[in-house]
Each structure stands twice: as structure tokens, then as C-alpha cells.
Design goal:
- The protein is mostly beta strands and 240 residues long.
- It has one domain (2-186): Methylamine Dehydrogenase, Chain H, CATH 2.130.10.
- The protein has no helices and 20 strands.
- It has strands at 2-3, 11-14, 26-28, 38-40, 46-49, 59-62, 71-73, 79-84, 90-94, 104-108, 117-119, 124-130, 136-141, 148-153, 161-162, 172-177, 183-187, 196-197, 206-210, 217-221.
- The strands form six sheets. The chain has a four-stranded antiparallel sheet, with no helix packed on it. A four-stranded antiparallel sheet has the order 8-9-10-11, with no helix packed on it.
- The radius of gyration is 17 Å and the shape is globular.
- The two termini are 19 Å apart.
Length: 240
């Protein structure tokens, strides 16, 4: 879990997937600063977005079990999310880069750390996901109104297709695609699928696991005061 609230400026806290009640069993701090989006690929490599807005070393990759970054993806001024396709292509949602600083999605060929191209989805990109066919889904919010939208891109495509009716989601924060191809979205205002929330100041933040089929809450994590979960990744990927 990405925790930007630690005294060191941020850390990645690691829990046992099958027994999270044991609490934090390991942490990664080297190279981590104000982390937000995190992702674990099919090889168990960890990707972390950092919030220092330098455009350099803004997204880092760690090998399975490693505590120091082994690869730096450059070019994103405001890296909010990162995802890697099964073919090795890496996508980064850069929320303030590109023309007029409206944001863009950066595309990195397999094994490369500099982007080969970028595209503007139509609003500020905040979150990314992929389906089993490596189609890319970009969650973005319109500049000014914060109306949320999700656009789907086929592999290598420059243009995408909007998937949800206009003005139905406000400030979209997360997207996912389940095993049946259904699109799941979470929004900051009233979103039913949000997995973390900010309780009153002074109390520890909470992460909740929810069974997708039934909507039943399975467990929650309250680690400590000052723990601020901002992103979650699971290895191996959890089934819906």
C-alpha cells in the first residue's frame, strides 16, 4: 500500500495478502516520496509513482522482494498512476504534463525508460487499468467541471472510445475491469466502490476489502495515526 503520510516523506507498506491482520510485515522507503499509484506486474515487479513533480525519476520499479529501485521512468511531471501490460508496455498517467499542463498519458515501450509517445484523453488523467486483451482504460476528469469519464484504447491506438454517459461520475478516482469485462469506477463524491476514505483528523485512515459479488465487507485495516493509504496493489492479482 502506498503511504504518503510517513515521516520519511512516504513509503510502501507490505502486508500478507492472506492474513493482513498481522499488520505491516515490510516497508520500502528508498526512492519513495509522496507515493500515489502503485502496480505489481505479472513478474511481481513493483511500480511506484512519486509526487515530487520534477519530471525525473518520477516512477520507479522494484524487483520482487527488493528495497531499492532498479529502473526509473522519466518524463512525467505529475505521475498519478502507472500500469504495465503483459507485453511489457508501461503507461503513466501524468496529470499536469503536456500542452497547457492539462495532463497526458505517457507510453513506454518494453524495457525503455523514456516515453515513445503520449496522448491526451480529453481531460486530466488520474487512473489506469488494462483488460485481458491489453486494452487500456484511462479514467480522467474534465478541467474545471471535474466530470469523470473513462476512455478505452486498443493496443497501439492513438484514439479511444468514451465508455460512460456524460456527467454521471464526478471526480473519478479509480477504475477496474472485472473478469467478465464489466467496468468498475470509483468517484470521490458518493462513489460506492471507493476502498479507502479519510476519517476525522487525528484518526488512522482505513482500507477496506469488499467482496465484489455480494458487497460484503471482508476486513478493514487501521494501522496507526498518520497512516495515509493512497494506493493499493495486490500480488498475485485478486480475483473478482
Amino acid at each position: 500500500m502506498a503511504n504518503p503520510g510517513s515521516r520519511s516523506g512516504g513509503e510502501i507498506d507490505i502486508f500478507l495478502r492472506d492474513d493482513p491482520s498481522k499488520g505491516i510485515v515490510d516497508s520500502i522507503r528508498d526512492g519513495v516520496f509522496a507515493p500515489d499509484g502503485i502496480f505489481v506486474d505479472t513478474h511481481s515487479n513493483l511500480y511506484v509513482t512519486n509526487g515530487h513533480m520534477s519530471g525525473r525519476e518520477s516512477v520507479e520499479m522494484y524487483a520482487k522482494g527488493g528495497h531499492k529501485p532498479i529502473r526509473f521512468y522519466t518524463g512525467a511531471l505529475c505521475a498519478f498512476d502507472v500500469i504495465a501490460a503483459s507485453d511489457g508496455t508501461v503507461y503513466i498517467a501524468d496529470a499536469c504534463g503536456g500542452p497547457h499542463t492539462r495532463g497526458r498519458v505517457l507510453v513506454y515501450p518494453p524495457g525503455k525508460t523514456k516515453p515513445s509517445r503520449s496522448f491526451f484523453p480529453g481531460g486530466t488523467p488520474y487512473c489506469l487499468t488494462l483488460d485481458a486483451k491489453n486494452n487500456l482504460y484511462v479514467g480522467y476528469n474534465s478541467v474545471g467541471s471535474y466530470a469523470g469519464q473513462v476512455k478505452r484504447y486498443r493496443p497501439g491506438a492513438k484514439d479511444g472510445v468514451d465508455l460512460i454517459p456524460p456527467n454521471t461520475v464526478h471526480f473519478l478516482t479509480s477504475v477496474a475491469v472485472n473478469e467478465h469485462g464489466a467496468l468498475l469506477v470509483a468517484n470521490e463524491v458518493g462513489g460506492a466502490l471507493t476502498s479507502s476514505y479519510c476519517p476525522p483528523l487525528g484518526l488512522p485512515n482505513t482500507v477496506a476489502a469488499i467482496d465484489y459479488a455480494s458487497g460484503k465487507q471482508l476486513w478493514t485495516l487501521n494501522v496507526r495515526v498518520g497512516w495515509v493509504p493512497a494506493g493499493v496493489a495486490v500480488a498475485p492479482s485478486a480475483p473478482f
